[in-house]
Amino acid sequence: MNASLARWLLAGEWRMHPVRALVAMGAIALGVALGFAIHLINAAAFNEFTAAVKSVSGVSDLQVRGAQASFDEALFPRLAQREGVTLASPVLEVDATVRDRQGTLKILGVDVFRAAAIAPDLVGVPQQGRAFDTLMDDTIFLSPAAMSWLEVKAGDMLTLRSGTVDIRLRVAGGLVRARSGQRIAVMDIAAAQWRFDRLGKLSRIELKLEPGIDREAFRASLQRELGAAYLLTETEDQEARSNNMSRAYRVNLNVLALVALFTGAFLVFSTQALSVIRRRQQFALLRVLGSSRRQVLAQVLAEGALLGVAGSLLGLALGYLLAALALRAFGGDLGGGYFPGVQPSVRFQPLAALVFFLAGSGIAILGSASPAWEAARARPAPALKAGSEDVALARLARPWPALACLLLGAALTRLPPVHGLPIFGYLAVALLLIGGIALMPRFAAWVFNAAASLRARRGAVGTLALARLANAPNQASIALGGVLSSFALMVAMAIMVSSFRVSVDDWLRHILAADLYLRSPAAADAGGLGPEQQRRIAALPGVLRADFQRVTQLSLDPAQPGVALIARPIDAADPGRTLPLTGPSMDAGTARPVWISEAMVDLYGYQVGKTITLPISGSPQPLLVAGVWRDYARQSGAIQMQLSDYQALTGDMTVSDAALWLKPDARASDVAAAVRALPFGAALELAEPGEIRALSLKIFDRSFAITYLLEAVAIIIGLFGVAATFSAQTMARAREFGMLRHIGVTRRQVLAMLATEGALLTAAGIAVGFLLGWCISLILVFIVNPQSFHWTMQLHMPWPTLATVAAALLASAAATALLAGRQAVSGDAVRAVREDW
Known about the structure:
Helix content is 56%, strand content 15%. By secondary structure, it is an alpha+beta fold. Strands 1, 3, 4, 5, 6, 7, 8, 9, 11 and 12 form a ten-stranded mixed sheet that branches. Strands 17-18-16-19-15-14-20-13-21 form a nine-stranded mixed sheet. The longest helix has 44 residues, at 235-278. It is elongated, with a radius of gyration of 33 Å. 47% of the residues are buried. The mean pLDDT is 85.
C-alpha cells in the first residue's frame, strides 16, 4: 500500500467521521494535558521551594539542629572552636503572628558578620547612612514578599506577636536577594532572643568545614559526640524531607490525571474497532487487489498513531497553559499546603514533555493494536460478505486473559509499598479495569441471551432490541465497555473522596468534644500561656472544666518532616474517651505511656508494647507505646502523652492550647467575651467546635479540588465516549435499518428500538461499572491511602452522587442513540440495502 493510497484512505475516514476522531483525540489531549500540567506545577513548586531552602542555608556544609525546636546556645562555642570547622554561624528561627493576617512570618535571627560569609542572602540592606541598623535591637529586615503581605515599607513600624506579647519593630530595609514569594524576615540574633523571649536558645548552627576534610567522617564523629538530642543535616536532607512529605500527594495526583488518559486509550480502541468493522469489506477488497497483511496492519496502526500524536501535541500545549494559569491563580501546592511561602513560575521541561508525548502516542497505538491485528488477519472471502461484523470481534470474547488480569490484580493488593508509594495498588487498579472491560463480551452475551429467552410480553421493539444485543454481543460490548470504564472510575473516586471526608468529619466530632477552644499563637518552643494565665482562664465564670495542652515538634530523622509531640490530660485507664484509637490500649503499669498516630507505625516502626526513647528535654527518655490513634491532621506523624509526664520530664509549665467545657447555663459567646476581657485575651484565637469543623472541611475540599476536577473530567469523557460509540454503531447499521423498513418496521419503531438498546446497554454497564468501581474503591481506601498517607478510614457510599451520575449516563446514552438513529433512518430504505449481497 503506497503512501498516496494510505493518505487517501486516512483522509476519507476522517472526512466521513470527524466527530468520532475528534472525541478520541480530545480524550488523549485531555489526559496528557492534566498529567503534564500537574507535573509542571509540582516540579515548579518543588524546585522553587528547594531554592528557597538553599538561600536560607547558604553555602554551609553541615547544619546542627536539635531534636526539639530549640537548644541551648552553649553548644555554639564548642562547635566554633572544633577542629575542622572554619566558620560557625548561629541561627534562631521564630514564627511570629501578625494581627489581622492569616499565617505566620518566619523571622531569622543571625549574626550578621558570620552570616555574610555563609548565607549572604540573609543580610539585610539598610537605608543610606544607617549601616548600624543591622545590629539594632528594634529593627527588622523584610523580604519583598513579606513587605507586600504586611503592606509596609522601609521606615514603617511593624507590630508582631509572640505568644500573648506584642513586639513593635521598625522596618529598616529589605532582603533584596530573597526568592520570589519567600516571606521571611531577618534581625540581629541577640535582639531576636531578647524580644521573642528566647534568651540562650538557638534553632540551628550552620557549619563551614575546612577544605579537604572528609565530610562524612566528620559528620559521623560529631553525631556520636552530640548524641540523639541533636541532628546533623545537609541541604540535601532538607530537600529529601520536603520531597518525602509531598511525594505521595504528587504521585497520587499524577495517577488520577492518567485516569483520563486511560479512558482516552479505550476511546481510541472503540473508534478504531468500529472503523475496522465498518470498513471490513474495504480492507478485504484491498487484500484481493494485492495489499499484504502487513500493509493493512500498518494502515490501521498509523491511523491510531496520528490520533495519539495529534492529541498528545495538543495536550502538551494545553497542559502548559493550565499549569501557568494554576500557578498564577492558586500557587504551587494544588491545595495540599506542602510548599508554603513560594511563588513559582512554570518552565517548559523538554524531557517531561517527551515522556507525556510518548505516553499519549503509545497508549493510542496500544488502543489500535487489537483492531489492526483483526483487520490484517481477516480472510478476504468471508470479510467481503455482509453480516460478518460481529465475528471480527470474536477474539474479544475469550475470558482467560480477563480472568488472569483480575486474579493478578487481586494478588497485587497483598504486596507492600515500594519506597513509600503504593505502586502495586495502582497496578491492581489498572488490571481490574482491564480485566473488567475485557469480560464485557461474555457478560453481554450472557445477560442479553438470558433476557431474550425470558417469556415476557415485550412487543416488537423490545424483541428486536434484545435480539440485536443477544446476537451481536461483541459489538455491544464496545459500547458497554465505554460506559463501564468511565462509570467505574467515577464510582471509585467518588467513594474514596466521600469516605475520606466523612471519616475526617467523624474524627473531628470525636476530638472536638469541648464547648470552646482557644489557642495562643506561639512558636513551638516558647511563649504560650503560663501557669497564672492558665489559672485565670480556668477560673472564668461559666467554665466547668479547662484542659490544657502543649504542642511541640520533634525531629527524629533528618530525611523526614518533624513529628508533633502533644502533651494533654489523658485518662490512662480509658484513653479512648480522648483519643480516636484504632485498637485497644494497653496498661503501661509503672512506665510512662505514649499514644502514637498511625503514621508512626509506618514511618518509624513503632508498635504497641514497644519501649521507645524520645529526645525530650535534651536527653533520651524511655516511654512505652500504649496505643495507636487515628490522625488526619499530621501526615508525618504525631505522639501524644500525658501533660503531667511532659511537665515532669521537661519542667515546661507553659501550654499552647486550651479546651473549655462550660456549665449547663453558660453560653459560649459570654465565655468568649470574658476570655477577650483578660489582659492577654486579645492575643488568643478562639473558636467553637462547629467553626473548627467547618474550616477543616473547607480546607479538605480545597485540598481535594483537583480530585473533584479529575472526577468531573472522567464523567465528561465517559459521556463523550458513550455518545461517540453509539453514534458510530448506529451509522454503521444503516443497511440493517433499511432491511427492517422493507419488512414493515416503522421509523418510530426503529428509533424506539435504538433508544431501548442504548438504555439496556448503559444500564448493564452501570451495574457492572458500579461493582467494579466499588472493588477499586476498596483498593483506594484500604491500600492506596494507608500506604500513601499513613492513615485509615471508614468506607462511605455517596448514593445521591452515584445515582445522579448513573441517571445522566443512562439518559445520555438513550438520547444519543435516538439522535444518531434519526440520521441513520432518514435515507431511502432501498438505497440503504442495495449494497447488501
